[in-house]
Amino acid sequence: MVNFAVLRYKFSLLLLVFVIASCGNKPRVGHKTMVALMTDFMILEGGNQIQYNFANVPAYVWKRDYAGVCKKHGVDTSDFRITMNYLEKHPEEFSKIMEESITNLQQLEAKLKNSKH
User: Fold this and answer.
1) Contact 29/81 with Cβ under 8 angstroms?
2) Cα dihedral sign for 21, 32, 97, 63?
3) What gap in Å lies between CA 37 and CA 97, rounded to an integer?
4) For the chain, what is the domain count?
5) Is residue 106 part of a domain?
6) Domain contains 6
7) What confidence tens digit (pLDDT) does each residue in 91-110 have?
8) Contacts with 87 (C-beta within 8 Å, 6 or more apart), sequence order
9) Residue 48, in any domain of the structure
10) Of 90, 98, 100, 103, which is closest to residue 27 (Cα–Cα)?
11) So what's the pLDDT on residue 41?
């Protein structure tokens, strides 16, 4: 005889696992915020390369600096990591974010050049 209560419990548990797993596949940081984050990260990385004379930057520096940029934008570092994992599987979306970030950097550069005149 089949115990329907146990079967229903197992089915509910399995459904819950699928729901939780599917939630993890979605980015937790929005597109515009990711563009702003990546723009700041590129500036940060450029500064670190100069500061450390293009040598390997210590891991604790990266962790500290990346956490600081995330905090500046009100983004939890775990949400950022989850979003980056998502973008790793969706390179076309990541490319769009990076293209917009590069455009932001070009606009910042032009603004700085114009302010010197």
Assistant:
1) no
2) negative
3) 10
4) 1
5) yes
6) no
7) 999 999 999 999 999 999 99
8) 27, 34, 93, 94, 97
9) yes
10) 90
11) 93
In a domain? residue 69? yes
Which residues does the chain have with pLDDT short of 50? 7, 13-22
Domain containing 50: what range? 27-115
Q: Could you give the CA distance from residue 18 to residue 35 in angstroms, rounded to a whole number?
A: 30
- The token duo for 52 is 């450390």
pTM of the entire structure? 0.72
CA gap 31, 23 in Å, rounded: 17
Give pLDDT, residue 59. 85
Write out the DSSP string of the chain.
Answer: ---HHHHHHHHHHHHHHHHHHHHTTS-SS-HHHHHHHHHHHHHHHHHHHHHTTTSPPPHHHHHHHHHHHHHHTT--HHHHHHHHHHHHH-HHHHHHHHHHHHHHHHHHHHHHHHHT-
